[in-house]
Write a structure and sequence with these properties.
The chain is mainly α and 462 residues long. It has 16 helices and 2 strands. The chain starts with a helix and ends with a helix.
Length: 462
């Protein structure tokens, strides 16, 4: 059976186990009129039977998914002729990769050797056998779990407590996965960044003014010694993000104030969905719009007033990025403003304040923590944007604060450094992790600042 078929069959068994378990709980007390004799509601007994019919089978299935391919590959390699088994591990990995590709139906660039064809047949045979074994094993385990749970159902059984305990354990596991994933991401970035800083001094990375990460492959190669001063990238990132926020912050906040305080319900129902459509547009579309429409327009306007504008400029990327971020600021700020208690508005009006005075002196200060969070989310969105910068600002690591010149950002350079097949042992590739660690620390600082602002004003207005 295919994996999807196994999952569907197990889901069907779980549904059947739920109804049978519920019926069993009613039957053991003599019918629906005696349900009060049960410790828990009949539905909990159904959930109990369904969980025990699925959970052990999914554990078996997870183990199979994790280790089956390794077991099959090990058997296939053992059946290969001796010259293949004595190959270096790197070359043997390439052979195994070819076997997997041929088994998947991919066309090879050259005619495979007879022993490779035999290995592919062996691989497919073992896959089929493995699939049937795990299918039958999962079905057997599922049915066994259901039978055990079914006959354990009794009036005194604490089904609700057991089901809630399993649900609680599941929630803890899900939360742990999220936390461990975050820890794993931080650890992987930190580990590779430490390797990078062992080759490139931290001071050179943080304060160097030249970014040219091309490293020499041979000792006699000229012009590729590598320069890893990231200041041009930091400046380019800050410049484009600043331009974007200069567009998004005031416009988005004014839109939010209008929709929350001045607009009629009809206008609000029409305008807000239109704004949210902008948030769903792929960034590559914004990139095309920036490169094809906005960049020529800015260059033509600059020429008319005597300014020299590069074909790819920070101003173009920042303006278009700001338009892209407007829905984030306006939508979040609108929700925050609407969450301000109406009693604050009524109290302000009762003291004789006008609508504009109420907005400036009551509503906005009360909503400030949420507005700060919205702006920080927008800043993070601007810092992490890549496609618009690639298409509108270019890849040149120029150290300049002139918005009319081409610049690049940290995220663009991370993508550039990690494109294609890479060996993670050179400073060029490891530089991406140094940049990633820097972005991580910047995000952490922004979050700390946001928490401090929220804590300060929440105490004041709660």
């Amino acid at each position: 059976m295919r994996l999807t078929t196994i999952i569907l069959v197990l889901a069907g068994i779980a549904v059947a186990a739920f109804f049978l378990g519920r019926q069993r709980s009613v039957a053991v007390v003599g019918g629906t009129r005696q349900v009060r004799k049960l410790h828990s509601l009949p539905g909990y007994y159904g959930y109990y039977a369904a969980i025990w019919s699925v959970l052990p089978a999914f554990i078996v299935l997870a183990i199979w998914i994790t280790f089956a391919d390794q077991f099959i590959v090990s058997n296939v390699v053992n059946d290969l002729p001796l010259p293949y088994q004595t190959m270096p591990q790197s070359e043997l990995n390439l052979v195994v990769n070819d076997i997997r590709n041929l088994a998947a139906g991919n066309i090879a660039s050259a005619e495979p050797a007879p022993e490779i064809e035999a290995a592919v047949e062996r691989y497919l045979e073992l896959r089929v056998v493995s699939n049937w074994i795990v299918s039958l094993l999962c079905l057997a385990v599922s049915l066994a779990g259901f039978v055990i749970a079914f006959f354990r159902i009794s009036p005194k059984q604490r089904a609700r407590n057991k089901v809630e305990k399993l649900v609680r354990v599941g929630l803890i596991i899900a939360s742990s996965i999220a936390v461990l994933t975050t820890v794993g991401i931080v650890a992987s970035v930190l580990f590779e960044a430490i390797r990078f800083f062992q080759q490139v001094p931290v001071t050179e990375f943080l304060f160097g003014l030249t970014w040219s990460p091309q490293t020499a492959i041979r000792a006699d190669q000229v012009g590729s010694s590598g320069a890893f001063g990231a200041v041009p990238l930091f400046v380019g990132t800050i410049l484009i993000s600043f331009i974007a926020m200069c567009v998004a912050a005031p416009i988005g906040l004014l839109i939010a104030i209008y929709l929350a305080e001045y607009a009629t319900k009809r206008i609000r129902k029409t305008a807000k969905p239109i704004l949210e459509v902008l948030a769903g547009i792929p960034t590559v579309v914004y990139g095309y719009f920036a490169a094809i429409t906005v960049a020529p327009l800015i260059r033509e306007l600059g020429n008319r007033i005597g300014l020299e504008v590069a074909s790819e400029s920070a101003l173009t990327a920042g303006l278009v990025m700001g338009v892209m971020i407007i829905p984030f600021v306006s939508s979040l700020s609108d929700d925050v403003i609407n969450s301000v208690p109406q009693s604050l508005r009524d109290g302000s009006y009762g003291l004789g304040a006008t609508k504009s005075e109420t907005i400036k002196r009551v509503i906005l200060p009360a909503a400030l923590p949420g507005i700060v969070s919205a702006l920080l989310l927008a800043v993070s969105r601007a810092i992490g944007e890549t496609m618009i910068v690639v298409m509108a600002a270019g890849l040149s690591a120029n150290l300049t604060v002139n918005p009319l010149e081409a610049v690049t950002t940290v995220t663009v350079q991370i993508v550039t450094l990690l494109v294609g097949d890479q060996e993670f042992d050179s400073a060029k590739t490891l530089a991406a992790f140094g940049l990633g660690l820097t972005l991580l620390l910047v995000t952490l600082v922004l979050n700390v600042v946001a928490l401090q602002v929220v804590r300060k004003y929440r105490e004041e207005y709660d």
